[in-house]
Amino acid sequence: MDPNQRIARISAHLNPRNLNQIGDGSGLNRVACRAKGGSPGFKVAILGAAGGIGQPLAMLMKMNPLVSILHLYDVANAPGVTADISHMDTSAIVRGFLGQPQLEEALTGMDLVIIPAGVPRKPGMTRDDLFNINAGIVKTLSEAIAKCCPKAVVNIISNPVNSTVPIAAEVFKKAGTFDPKKLMGVTMLDVVRANTFVAEVMSLDPREVDVPVVGGHAGATILPLLSQVKPSCSFTQKEIEYLTDRIQNGGTEVVEAKAGTGSATLSMAYAAVKFADACLRGLRGDADIVECAFVASHVTELPFFASKVRLGRCGIDDVYGLGPLNEYERMGLEKAKKELAGSIQKGVTFVKK
């Protein structure tokens, strides 16, 4: 291979493939770039890859050995993030895509699409305050997914998840591509926080704690089932109230601590990668992959609800019920459902209007 071809090969992943030249007047033809020895794996796209969640998420997905191709899309700064991440010596190939004209190419052939796109919360804002901006973003991205990779598993992070997941579902239904097994709202950060906070109270290693968190992904809709914690723990009523409140308001804790400079981006990226990895292991055929997620559900009378799901080759293999609840949890469930119903309807109405 002559030097020009070698340079073309090295540079090929830095710019979208629909640009036929690299650099200015170099005359180098673009060719497919493949890291030698790279293992076969899954094709993953991150939509919103240059944002506060998107950047650490992209970095952590580049480190995942199950990812063979990583597409990074954003409306700004995608080339810089792509160049930076692409220098990591892991096997996944990274390609960047900038702006609406390159969205469809970013999505074509993807197995998993992760959506952290949108604006973050600022002090005093609820996740619902983000609705007017993020709803439109998720709708546009979902339309492109329906067209370019309708069979992909979709992980939605963009808040308010309680509304953005129903928005995506309505878009997919309109396009005739909706598969409830493929669409998941990422509530893993609630579980990660619950595991951490319970471990602190009980002096345990958080890696050994598993707290089911059901309902939704905002305030009172977040319902940690502390009666079902593994390993089995006994809490005082005061501890239950403290833990429930802290888990429900963990996002606000970070927003206020960052004092206007952002929201929970790093822990969210960690949680998103933990969930994405579970999805990929499920797609690979690994057994007994069970995580909590906000999905189309018959667990309650609501059309969407977060509970434990078993992940498999088709996305969601099974949606589990809530199990036995104590009186405090039953009261919390009724409160969660009331708020959740309005958020779900808000998303459905946004697409249908």
TrEMBL record:
InterPro entries: L-lactate/malate_DH, Lactate/malate_DH_C, Lactate/malate_DH_N, Lactate_DH/Glyco_Ohase_4_C, Malate_DH_AS, Malate_DH_type1, NAD(P)-bd_dom_sf
Active site: H217 (proton acceptor)
Gene Ontology cellular component annotations, sorted alphabetically: peroxisome
Positions that bind NAD(+): G48, A49, A50, G51, G52, I53, G54, D74, N134, I157, S158, N159, M268
Superkingdom to which the source organism belongs: Eukaryota
Domain Lactate/malate dehydrogenase C-terminal: 187-350
MF GO annotations: L-malate dehydrogenase (NAD+) activity
Coarse class of the protein's main subcellular location: other
EC number: 1.1.1.37
Catalytic activity: (S)-malate + NAD(+) = oxaloacetate + NADH + H(+)
Gene3D superfamilies xref list: Lactate dehydrogenase/glycoside hydrolase, family 4, C-terminal (3.90.110.10), NAD(P)-binding Rossmann-like Domain (3.40.50.720)
Root EC class: oxidoreductase
Keywords, comma-separated and alphabetical: Glyoxylate bypass, NAD, Oxidoreductase, Peroxisome, Tricarboxylic acid cycle
Residue ranges annotated for the Lactate/malate dehydrogenase N-terminal domain, each copy included: 43-185
GO BP term, example: tricarboxylic acid cycle
Keyword field contains Oxidoreductase: yes
Subcellular location: Peroxisome
UniProt-annotated binding residues for substrate: R121, R127, N159, R193
Protein family: Belongs to the LDH/MDH superfamily. MDH type 1 family.
Assembly and interaction partners: Homodimer.
Protein name in UniProt: Malate dehydrogenase
Lineage: Eukaryota, Viridiplantae, Streptophyta, Embryophyta, Tracheophyta
